[in-house]
Write a structure and sequence with these properties.
Layout (H helix, E strand, L loop, with lengths): L2 E5 L5 E5 L4 H10 L3 E2 L2 E4 L5 H10 L4 E5 L5 E5 L6 E2 L1 H4 L9 H8 L1 E5 L12 H9 L3 E5 L2 E5 L7 E3 L8 H11 L5 E5 L5 H12 L3 E3 L5 E5 L4 E2 L2 E3 L4 H13 L3 E7 L5 H10 L2 E8 L4 E7 L8 E4 L10 H8 L5 E6 L7 H8 L3 E5 L2 E5 L8 E3 L3 H13 L3 E5 L2 H6 L3 H7 L3 E4 L1
Parallel strand pairs: 2-17, 3-15, 4-16, 7-8, 11-12, 20-21, 24-25
Antiparallel strand pairs: 1-25, 1-26, 4-6, 5-6, 8-10, 9-10, 12-14, 13-14, 17-19, 18-19, 21-23, 22-23
Helix pairs in contact: 1-2, 1-7, 4-6, 5-6, 6-7, 8-10, 8-12, 10-12, 11-12
């Protein structure tokens, strides 16, 4: 099993280019099931999660090939199969996003339930609620969602849940609605940038979708969607992670090809604690920004509450929590999206942090320094948090189960090495 070794104490300097967004790439690749003809998806990161969605799509009759420029070419060659097996789906919860496209195009789907998740219970009940509202007959049998959609038609659907809107649920219902008769209105739709990116891709294929980026989506069904070429947005979580890396090492990093408008809440919070963040270049044609993040010599404590977009993202909670372990005073982290997402805290305590958990809140008392230690990653974002801690810890940090990190950060060790980190994979 791979381990990552990080020797702390170096100030990060240099520039880093942000890769394509994992959480946009996965549903967009699933959406190519809807297309007649070839799709070319650009800016797709090299990640194990991308490999996993490709492994799911190929048995569903998709031809998929990575091109020399890194883009992915897809086309449907056989539409006879509608089953996504447990052996493949269990590797990644996002695999469930093939459910909507299969129902829309093949009128049936048999997709394994994705199973448990270390960051908490993440049911797909809102996915099923939305698809049932469109007219799908759905049963859960032997761990599989078995759905039939011969009589799908547009409907008004409310997709609210206990912790707000559902990103993948919105994606599933939106994809299904593009090719069915009538108009579908999704109230309390997720408005994350990755959902907007999926809507933009579907529109480029010929879908009629209004309201992307708001909590009200209106989808008018069309007869067909045609293949197209599309470039995925940059990964806002990776960009936020490098802002945190600059902060915790008192570094100076130029973060290239990110989107400031996707990270307002994050940038505001880092500025509040004492990090200097400024835009140095904007490309008006692509909407991409180059941003310089400069860390300070000390940080103020603060309170952070995770919320659905445009609030502070849950996927950056672990990273800012790590920075706050070294801030003066007491910080309070409230997790309002996944209340159990604090697995990284016990590992940070092993490195000398002072964190205690009370319900869905973590109370962080700033300490003077962290010490390198052997630690274990529990999930993707916890892995990033432990790397950040290792960057500044005294001595060497050895992070086990680092395969989590490779799910969502493209060539992360190489990127850190170019910024001056003593880091190696073993």
């Amino acid at each position: 099993m791979k381990k990552l070794m990080v020797r702390g104490g170096r100030r990060l300097e240099g520039e880093v280019k942000i890769s394509g967004a994992k959480n946009a790439a996965l549903p967009i690749l699933a959406a190519t099931l809807l297309a007649e003809g070839e799709c070319v998806i650009k800016n797709v990161p090299y990640l194990t999660d991308v490999d996993n969605i490709i492994d799911i799509l190929r048995p569903l009759g998709m031809f998929i090939e990575r091109q020399e420029d890194g883009s992915i070419l897809t086309r449907v060659e056989d539409d006879s199969c509608s089953t996504a097996t447990y052996e493949l789906v269990k590797k990644m919860r996002a695999s469930v996003c093939v459910l909507g496209p299969l129902l829309a195009t093949r009128k049936k789907a048999r997709v394994s339930l994705p199973g448990g998740c270390v960051i908490g219970i993440r049911p797909i009940d809102l996915h099923l609620k939305g698809l049932r509202a469109l007219g799908a007959n759905i049963e859960v049998i032997h761990g599989y969602v078995e759905a039939e959609g011969e009589k799908l038609r547009g409907a008004e659907i409310f997709l609210g849940g206990a912790f707000g809107s559902t990103v993948l649920g919105t994606a599933n219902v939106m994809m299904a609605a593009t090719l069915i008769e009538g108009t579908t209105i999704i109230e309390n739709a997720a408005c994350e940038p990755e959902v907007q990116d999926l809507a933009n891709f579907l529109r480029k294929m010929g879908a009629k979708i209004e309201g992307a980026g708001t909590h009200r989506l209106v989808i008018e069904g069309v007869e067909k969607l045609t293949g197209t070429t599309y470039s995925i947005i940059p990964d806002r979580i990776e960009a936020g992670t490098f802002i945190a890396a600059s902060a915790i090492t008192q570094g100076d990093i130029l973060i290239k090809d990110m989107r400031i408008d996707h990270l307002h809440a994050v940038i505001d919070k880092f500025r509040e604690i004492g990090v200097e963040i400024r835009k140095v270049r904007e490309n008006p044609e692509t909407g991409l920004h180059d941003v310089r993040a400069r860390g300070g010599k000390s940080y103020q404590s603060c309170d952070v509450a995770t919320l659905p977009y445009p609030g502070f993202p849950t996927d950056l909670q672990a990273q800012i929590s790590t920075v706050l372990t070294l801030a003066s005073g007491i910080s309070v982290i409230t997790e309002k999206v996944y209340p159990d997402r604090f697995m990284h805290m016990s590992e940070l305590n092993r490195m000398g942090a002072s964190v205690r958990k009370e319900g869905n809140t973590a109370i962080v008392l700033g300490v003077d320094f962290l010490s390198g230690a052997p630690v274990m990653a529990s999930d993707l974002r916890a892995s990033a948090a432990l790397v950040l801690a290792g960057l500044v810890a005294r001595g060497e940090t050895v992070i086990d189960r680092i395969y989590h990190l490779e799910r969502g950060y493209e060539k992360i060790a190489d990127k850190f090495a170019k910024l001056g980190v003593e880091i190696k994979m073993e």
